[in-house]
Write the structure tokens for this entry.
Amino acid sequence: MRATLLAATLAMAIIMVGCGEKGAGQGSGHVSDAEPRPRQIKQEQKPQPETVKDEVAKKPSQEEQKPEPGPAPRNIPGLTPQEVYLNLEIRDFKCSEPELMGPDNQVRWTCEKQEANSEYLVEINSSDANSVRLVEATVITSDPAHADAVAQDFLGYVATIPYEGAHPEEAKAWVKQNVGSKASAEVGGVSYTLGGKAGRHFLKLENLEG
């Protein structure tokens, strides 16, 4: 009888222990399902600040920044200022030192000579010391009877300046023929222009083609 009671008590204890473990397992599973899981928050990526390298990359290259080349200077081919003023100094002209003129720093030489009834002036304009853009010669005389003859002699001499492709005798003959009138011609690719009035005559030489 005692053995039977002990066996029954042991069986009840085992049953109670098994129920307790099952209940604990179910309770634990229920709590686990109820806990919220951490969510992965997708963060928006903020734009990164531009670096110095990025800014340089946006700038135009040095080749793009180069200014467009300007038109070529309209120089009288093969003529230098020295060839003009040295030939004038042979005829007793006094020539100045080169002067910078205007915003483009053009260079100008001035040669002058005075006689009893006449004044002579030659201006040499250039963009540098080794080229000539324009030669303008002027003669003013107070003797109307000899004004044309004086102009023919002086301007005819200036017309023979030695540039590349020049035809000195042709140019001189044209000047002598047209002194006293307004006229223009092209000799060896260089433009010759005559003009003036009332005892004042001028001759202008320049390259119009560039």
